[in-house]
Amino acid sequence: MSEIELQSKSHSVKERLRFIELMLLFRGWVVRRDIVDKFETSMPAATRDLKAYSDLAPGNMYLDNSTKRWVLSLVNFTPLFQIEKGEALAILRNTTFSKNIGISHTDGVLGVPRISAPSIDVLTHLTRAVANKEAVNIEYCAASRGVETTVIVPHSFVDNGIRWHIRSYDKNRDRFWDFVIGRIKDVKPNKNKVLNKETIESDHQWNRMVRLELVAHPSLDNLINKKAIECEYGMENGILILQVRAAVAGYWLRMWNVDSSHDHSLDGKEYQLCLANPETLYDVDNALLAPGYSVAKT
Questions:
Q1: Is 0.70 topped by the overall pTM?
Q2: Rounded CA gap, 284 and 208, in Å?
Q3: pLDDT, tens only, 157-198
Q4: Of 54, 153, 188, 240, which sits most exposed with the smallest number of CB within 10 A?
Q5: Nearest to 205, CA basis, from 265, 261, 247, 264
Q6: The domain 120-204 is classified under which CATH number: 3.10.450, 2.30.30, 2.40.160, 2.40.10?
């Protein structure tokens, strides 16, 4: 199979070929009915798609005449489509796809329920503001100040693992800030001009990249077998290096339960990772969200 042959196919054909490959990989076999149900096409059209896939990747599957299934051939399998690790998990979380491969009867992929969900009206007002680089008036339930009104220039959405927030410039306080979307009660358009200092390009914390060096926790009380952690996170030479935005570093470290203390002193089996370079959090606005982190005394 040549890349040219695959790329010469139309987008719709490539979508169906990709679906065939996903069914082979995730379930181990595919039949015409899968394609018909997914794409609302005909049986003859599904036959043509299966033949097209077989022609492009003849070693990837074979026809089991007794079941009329096209079965995955692992020995000779060469993928037509590249799937990233994160993408594979997202595919599996899709309830329709999990039903297609027959695991929905076991709840598919059971995830943590979202107990904080923003209103659609608020969310879509914000997406339009981001898309068009506009300011909006919001009514916001602040944790420490109660309900207040302010003008923001939103530029990015963040899912911190617990809830969503919108990274924005707060015109009233003249700074960039994270606004929890679920706490925004109302949004109204604002036609005031957006200044250069209020745009994403001027958000230092957003544009600054921070290097996180994660290693297995050294305390045997927290972790007996560090090789298990090194295997789980695909560490090389005992370390996992990530480049993240300063604006989210504290959130990520908290979500991952990373001991970010300077002496790796946090106790508890929930702390199986530690930050080998806590000094990297210097001047990170949300650094204190990282478990155990404190500003080093000089």
A1: yes
A2: 9
A3: 999 888 999 999 999 999 999 999 999 999 999 999 999 999
A4: 188
A5: 247
A6: 2.30.30
